[in-house]
Amino acid sequence: MQNFIDAYSWINIRFLLEGLWITIEVSLISIVISFVLGTFLGIIRYAKIKYLSAIVGFIIDILRNLPLLLIIFFTYFGLPNIGIKPEIIPAAIMALSIFESAMVAEIVRSGINSIDYGQTEGALANGLTKWQALRIIVLPQAIKNMMPALVSQFISLVKDTSLATIIVLPELMYHAQIIYGQNTNYIIPMFVALAVLYFIVCYSLSLFARYLHKHIA
């Protein structure tokens, strides 16, 4: 019990919260970028545009089958070899956004495909173009269907920020490692704290998504 009391000193808690802030910041920016980019790529793949859809689909399949850790490693250590030298936080955001965009693109494509094509035909019969039908009629319904899968993917993104410790991203997991690296008696208390903090962030995200789902409905 004394180990827990000592581990949860104000200095350590504040240090963990600083790491948590970096985790939240990186996660939120990556979620926004991956949602926008993934939606765009998913629509392109769904639209079956000659050559372009096939190329996008090929790239998505490659990204989905690569380990996120490898993408993070390549983004930070590989890009400097071609003249691009991102800082740690931008590199983590770039890697997470690229990987999650591929996942979101497949969710978007599946969500659009889940909408009965008769609705598109009805919109076309009423004078809308194919893109207007997609934007006004199909996509809003598809987003409602996609919400559970998107939330699950974004919760995974929050947890996946811990993989960026490989490039020394000063996020929650990295700060916990520094604390228990100074005193091995703090290992269990730190992992308990990590579990609580990750749960709070991820559960809050799921509650917010549940609110949005009801609002959309």
From TrEMBL:
Keyword vocabulary terms for this entry: Amino-acid transport, Cell membrane, Membrane, Transmembrane, Transmembrane helix, Transport
Compartments where located: Cell membrane
Keyword Endoplasmic reticulum applies: no
Primary residence: membrane
Domain ABC transmembrane type-1 as annotated: residue spans: 20-209
GO cellular component: ATP-binding cassette (ABC) transporter complex
Bilayer topology: Multi-pass membrane protein
GO biological process assignments: amino acid transport
TM ranges: 20-44, 51-76, 88-108, 162-180, 186-209
A GO molecular function held by the record: transmembrane transporter activity
Alphabetical list of Pfam families matching this protein: BPD_transp_1
Family: Belongs to the binding-protein-dependent transport system permease family.
Protein name per Swiss-Prot or TrEMBL: Amino acid ABC transporter permease
